[in-house]
Amino acid sequence: MLTLPELREKCRQRGVKLTPQRIAIFECLIQHAGHPSAEEVYQEVLARYPTLSCATVYNTLELLAELGEVREVIVDELRRRYDANVEPHQHAVCRQCHRIMDVEVDAATALRQTDLQTYGFAVEAVTVQFTGLCAPCAAAAA
């Protein structure tokens, strides 16, 4: 993820105003070690900006995703999480507790390099998500 001055410059180049609320959302993502939901970001930033709206959080997260500064992780149809780590990596999602873990798998590099031009398709990104049970949930199920 970019530094705040780099983000300011990127937004300025695209004609996007960086409001104090957007900066607070950006800072929240940088400081968050996991994959927060929009609701979690909203609750954290709301303490600093009591007039913050959910729409501002959703719109800012969408903007950051468009800028390539966060990755959207879709847990299921109703749950989206946001990952400030935009370096290539994959996710393992527990189907029980919905915990998300970053994982490194070399096969993803090969997938990114797969040539689909034969099909008239240019690959821009590959998303690999593993679904299963995390160790605590697997132990509880046993």
What does this structure look like?
With 142 residues, the protein is of the alpha+beta class. The chain is 41% helix and 17% strand. Strands 4-3-5 form a three-stranded mixed sheet, with no helix packed on it. Helix 2 (20-31) packs across helix 3, helix 2 (20-31) packs across helix 4 and helix 3 (38-46) crosses helix 4. It is flat.
Q: DSSP strand (E) fraction?
A: 15-25%
Task: Report the major sheet.
Answer: 3 strands, mixed
The coarse silhouette is: flat
Radius of gyration: 17 Å
State the secondary-structure class: alpha+beta
Total strands: the figure is 5
**Order of strands across the biggest sheet?**
4-3-5
Secondary-structure element string: HHHHEEEEHEH
Count up the helices: 6
Give a quick precis of the structure.
The protein is built from six helices and five strands; from the N terminus they run ααααββββαβα.
Please name the defining characteristics of this protein.
two-stranded antiparallel sheet, 142 residues, alpha+beta
